[in-house]
Amino acid sequence: MSAAEAGGVVHRARGRTLDAFPSEKEREWKGPFYFIQGADPQFGLMKAWSTGDCDRCGDEWGQEIRLTEQAVQAINRLNPKPKFFVLCGDLVHAMPGTPWRKEQTEDLQRVLRDVNSEIPLVFVSGNHDVGNVPTRETIAEFHQTWGDDYFSFWVGGVLFLVLNSQFLYDASGCPALKQAQDQWLDQQLSIAGQRKCQHAIIFQHIPLFLESIDEDDDYFNLPKSVRKEMADKLSKAGIKAVFSGHYHRNAGGIYQNLDMVVSSAIGCQLGKDTHGLRVVVVTAEKIVHRYYSLDELSEKGIEDDLMDLMKEK
Asked: What whole-number distance in Å separates Cα of residue 130 and Cα of residue 222?
């Protein structure tokens, strides 16, 4: 089953542009809106983490199914509907070429079929989706299953860029593909740099940093050798925010005018946060976001102060 079959409106990126939104129509600012960000449903990790063997023991994922079903139900109840729902990587736990990958993928796609057909889904590649050291073969598999690994789309005058952050972490298995993304990104940033959009926002799996641009290298951030250069490039182009996952905890910080947002997981928690989703409100002047537990969003919905922002002219 492909991503295009996974839900009522699951859109694949074609030609590096998401087909969910007619780009010309969506290039104009029409007023505040919001979207939902999730990360790391990672079917199979909760069992693997509990056993202490993350490489071999992801053979159960019933908990992740229930949590993702709860997330879908919470999103479907929101009124007004979000403009889209983006999943920032590690869709399943099984790495390319390992047991349970096909079954985990099929179960996630089955759950996502229940997302309201009027809410487009946007998929971001994570290290478990394309491999810690991606290759042409693992990228091709992602394309077949979920769509392009990097692409752009417009919503209401805002330019959104989806990146394959694994190319920034270790592209030794496919350097030409990384070079292609780099060239494409420079072209997209030139649009943002000329201020031809109300805002420009990036989605990627691995955060640039967890708290500070100067922090030490870690499994959960991009290496210093690329982090500062990348952050400077994005900031110079006027990128307002980078939304990521990977850490399975909430974190983030500010670098210059760039908001690095690290969202915890729908699935396995590695810290003290709860399974949840992030509500992101985009106004003419700012981007406001808040993380909700799945229980909070299911029971109470979006709080009034965020709803009021969407009423601003």
From this structure: 16
Q: What percent of the chain has pLDDT over 70?
A: 90
DSSP tag of 81: P
Mean pLDDT of 186-210: 94
Do residues 266 and 68 lie in contact, with contact meaning Cβ atoms separated by under 8 Å?
yes
- 6 closest CA partner among 83, 110, 98: 110
Strand-by-strand arrangement of the 241-244 sheet = 13-14, 17-18, 151-155, 158-162, 199-203, 241-244, 258-262, 251-255
Q: Which two tokens stand for residue 147?
A: 């769509």
- Collapsed DSSP state (helix, strand, coil) of residue 220: coil
Cα 168 to chain centroid distance, Å, stands at 16
Looking at residue 50, what is its pLDDT? 81
By DSSP bridging, strand 199-203 and strand 158-162 are: parallel
Q: What element of type H or E holds 188?
A: helix 175-193
The pLDDT confidence band at residue 6, using thresholds 50, 70 and 90, is very low
User: Are the CB atoms for 81 and 94 separated by under 8 Å?
Assistant: no
Instruction: Please state, in angstroms and rounded to a whole number, the distance separating the CA atoms of residues 104 and 42.
Output: 9
The structure tokens 């590096």 sit at 16
